[in-house]
Inverse folding.
């Protein structure tokens, strides 16, 4: 039975292009292994330590949180230079991008978590971990107050405080309900592993409810109406997973109610996946339409009760009440109370989200750093510094800036104000000195301060804030640990851009999101790697040689920053790859498998995740409510 | 790292006898497959139905519970003859013998459960399952009242009632606290999958607690004192699993508290595993002593509070208070309130446990059957029927019974009163007619009623009640479904023993526990099977050819009924095999792996359990608290 179901599933994929697919599977797994191998190699590549630094008293670093940002910071920080203590209410790191897969049992919760102690064990056992929640940051006294979330079996109320020299806040964000009434009480979220486990149980519950005796048809229908609020990548992926779970597994064991199931995706914007390329949005909408997933765009949820939710259709202004069996709320992120309280202390009380400078240091604080979803980088505007820049560049104090004077400072400008580069790209300017041309496009020998201002006045509009994603958080953690490790060295030999409003250089280069991190590592960096080369080429060939209806490769249309995936169910996915490549279809799903397998935090989770996928192919998903 | 740890673990086993072990692994897996294959074949072996029966209106059968008894009943019942409805608060069947493994993550909870709907799907979809709890049996009106355990999202209070023609009670038992104060509030149990999951979390919690800052040494010690009450197979297996979990996995990631850990096993009797052979008891006690697990025999727990438990040492009469971090209570089974209420209705209010006759029908009821842990078979005493037996056997009404007259009824006696056979074995009598010899052992031609009574008066003392095990429950389910399926046929052509107190025969043979079910199927039945033959011989050869210090095979000493296992940790187990073989050591653990793998309810769980074991060997157990 199971074997035949597997063959049935497999045959539908192998149907068209068996050779390509077989090659892809092989290559997918092997490349994952190789990349993982090269990852693990890089871990051992440690910068040699300054001897003086060793002799000094170790500074205390307290890290709050063990998510992407916290964990990647811990992986690289030198325990020989710092006393590191970590606080988190969860003693594990979770590979959150796979949470939607956990909701339907495609992947087990335990396959995507790795104990923090396993991660810090590799760091010579000199990092201390405490399973507790930080309840207050006392910035004035350099202390954090923590409370154990274990039951209070032991003496006291489980509270303790830790002192720090440096504090790293990486506590992540909480769900943003936009103060919609009833959301906290009646909706499911998808932030934590527990959320995903609860959601899985609730989906099964909805089906078990619907087949109980003595219910009306309406009640059965209501119980099987699954509503997802938020058409971002998480909501879309959950909708797709749920659809697959129901159609591939649940319909067979609940045949009596299979025609009553309904999935609705509510999106306030005009399109789902609206942070993705338009082609991906419409591909996803078309796929969902074929699958029978209702997409309600331009709708706002006004409130959620136990049995129904009220929705306002923006264009008509009408309000509908929709009965539901389960609502999943996935609409962006909000600030945690701990961080909100800390923001008041450092004078950021009027901001929506904690701001750091480009070096991830919290604004208004000297020794507190914040990274990941709990903070945002407040990129300095070039117009704020325009006078200092002009003054610094005008070395002969002539009151005008020549092209060569400008060329002397341009590298520092590009590092300090990355929006300049984005502006150049948006204007299709090849060279930064082209900025100095006059409005008609003619070259100028020099510009005065007013002309210089008018040239740069639009640059700041291109300032971009980084998305709240795992990739950004992980890179920030690594960046910060590198800064910590090289603090002494960079104080003596600064390597950042020059200070326009002061003298000398910044100690470090500002944080910059490495846009090619995810996918390009497979396509370019991987190819350069000697061992991986042949396999990566195979991937490329398989990928590019696939027929166009199976793999919609479209060429660059406009500049895009980040590579990102959106699995759409039915073994199809969409991806925006670096260089503005857009890819959709079955092959993208295989690329997704490959990337997600290789990006796992340990070999254990890698093996578990891959075997979970294999198990799902062979036996389907489990519907036991445990 | 992981690979090297695997090699280290593996090498310690392969060290002594690599060839034997390799063969064992291979053979273990293959034999599991083959036995499972032959299992699945037997499912298709359906008795042809009586046409008359089909034409009659289908009788309604309601089954309460989806444990071992309920599930094995459902697997075989003919849906063409009965309308079957199943009620259970859990929509899955759990392979309970592996629960102790789940507590420490050796096996995942999801690997030992199979959705009930998957099991009944194979029965042509004509069995209805409702996820609800039966709250009352209304025996007078042939009704059961059920309440959905899902949240009351839908109309009403989730209650509904079902009518039945036949009711099958297979709800299992609850834990027996012997009314010890504080046990329900402060102890962990090991009856359900949820219990095992909670216990796993609590073990991790105890360690996380113990490493929090600001605790005294005493508090840390208390948190890491694990107490198990009950030295039966479950308690012993949990103690062994916990010891392995701590020594193999937790000590490495909590090195700072490794010397504070203490495991104590409290047993009221003089020895642990006291239902097993003495050699196994002392082997287990010695092993636990070497492992540092404290075994306190002859102790009674008087009460359990949040932080300590008070224990009375029976021999001294003194009472000690012992601080603990976690207590697991595993001391036998008690009756559920539902069954207790039903017992009042059928006049069994003064009994401790629900009694059925030898055909599993509840005493005092015509159409209610009870099987598994919730009931016990009340074996009829031969002395109650002694006059009828004598009268029925004395065909010539001579007032005396000759040997040949006795021989005419002896087969029926043996079937109806299985204690006779046990009595013969205990007296080492080869032939049943030897019973008629006089007290000096001389043959007698005939006996009168008084002599007959004196001959049989000790027989009833050998009456044995069946243990509350998975094997018994499963066999009862299968037996009862066969009776149901052949009801009409056996009414017309009875096949049971003759009725001594009435005329004719009993319709069915009484239930008899198939003592060779577990292990002998591997050693004898398996060998007969054509396909499995060669592999089974390999097992036997490997098993028997192992050196004696590695495999303690001891020959029969006294008669024993059931084959049973007791895993003792450190890849060692003890087993009582049929024919009074006692086996202990590493090889027994491999036999245990083989038996438990093959006895899984589906291929899915079989693959999952085996891969969990493999994962544990390679990566160890996970310590994430999810």
């Amino acid at each position: 039975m199971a074997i035949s179901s597997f063959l049935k599933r497999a045959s539908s994929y192998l149907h068209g292009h068996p050779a390509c697919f077989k090659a892809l599977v092989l290559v997918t797994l092997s490349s994952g292994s190789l990349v993982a191998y090269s990852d693990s190699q890089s871990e051992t590549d440690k910068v040699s330590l300054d001897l003086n630094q060793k002799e000094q008293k170790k500074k205390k670093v307290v890290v709050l949180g063990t998510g992407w940002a916290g964990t990647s910071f811990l992986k690289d920080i030198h325990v020989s230079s710092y006393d590191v203590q970590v606080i988190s209410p969860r003693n594990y790191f979770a590979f959150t991008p796979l949470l939607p897969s956990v909701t339907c049992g495609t992947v087990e919760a335990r396959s995507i978590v790795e104990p923090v102690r396993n991660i810090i064990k590799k760091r010579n056992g000199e990092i201390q971990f405490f399973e507790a929640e930080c309840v207050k940051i006392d910035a004035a006294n350099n202390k954090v107050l923590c409370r154990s979330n274990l039951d209070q079996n032991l003496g006291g109320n489980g509270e303790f405080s830790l002192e720090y020299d440096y504090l790293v806040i990486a506590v992540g964000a909480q769900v943003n309900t936009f103060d919609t009434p009833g959301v906290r009480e009646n909706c499911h979220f998808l932030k934590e592993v527990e959320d995903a486990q609860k959601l899985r149980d609730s989906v099964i519950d909805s089906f078990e409810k619907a087949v109980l005796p003595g219910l009306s048809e309406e009640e059965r229908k209501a119980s099987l109406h699954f509503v997802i609020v938020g058409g971002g990548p998480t909501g879309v992926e959950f909708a797709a997973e749920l659809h697959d779970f129901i159609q591939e597994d649940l319909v067979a064991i609940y045949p009596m109610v299979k025609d009553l199931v309904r999935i609705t995706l509510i999106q306030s914007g005009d399109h789902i996946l609206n942070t993705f390329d338009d082609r991906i949005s419409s591909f996803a909408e078309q796929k969902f339409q074929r699958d029978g997933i209702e997409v309600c765009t331009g709708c706002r949820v006004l409130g959620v009760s136990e049995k129904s939710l009220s929705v306002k259709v923006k264009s008509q202004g009408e309000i509908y009440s929709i009965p539901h069996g389960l609502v999943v709320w996935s609409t962006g992120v909000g600030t945690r109370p701990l961080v909100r309280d800390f923001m008041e202390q450092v004078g950021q009380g009027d901001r929506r989200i904690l701001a750091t400078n480009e070096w991830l240091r919290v604004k208004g604080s000297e020794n507190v750093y914040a990274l990941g979803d709990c903070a945002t980088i407040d990129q300095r505007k070039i117009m704020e510094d325009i006078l200092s820049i002009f003054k610094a560049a005008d070395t002969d104090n002539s009151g005008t800036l020549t092209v060569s004077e400008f060329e002397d400072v341009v590298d520092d400008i590009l590092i300090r104000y990355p929006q300049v580069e984005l502006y150049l790209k948006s204007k299709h300017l090849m060279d930064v000195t082209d900025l100095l041309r006059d409005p008609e496009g003619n070259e100028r020998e020099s510009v005065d301060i007013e002309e210089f201002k008018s040239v740069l006045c639009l640059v700041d509009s291109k300032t971009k804030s980084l998305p709240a994603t795992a990739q950004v958080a992980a890179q920030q953690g690594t960046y910060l640990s590198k800064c910590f490790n090289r603090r002494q060295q960079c104080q003596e030999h600064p390597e950042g851009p020059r200070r326009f409003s002061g003298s000398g250089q910044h100690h470090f280069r500002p944080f910059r999101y490495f846009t090619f991190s995810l996918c390009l590592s497979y396509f370019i960096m991987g190819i350069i790697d000697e061992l991986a080369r042949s396999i990566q080429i195979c991937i490329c060939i398989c990928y590019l040689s696939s027929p166009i209806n199976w793999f919609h490769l479209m060429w660059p249309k406009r500049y895009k920053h980040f590579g990102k995936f959106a699995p759409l169910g039915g073994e199809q996915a969409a991806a925006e790859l670096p260089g503005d490549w857009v890819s959709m279809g079955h092959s993208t799903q295989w690329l997704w498998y490959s990337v997600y397998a290789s990006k796992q935090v340990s070999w254990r989770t890698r093996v578990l995740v891959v075997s979970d996928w294999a198990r799902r192919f062979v036996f389907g998903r489990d519907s036991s409510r445990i």
Q: What stands out?
A: DSSP finds 22 helices and 26 strands in chain A.
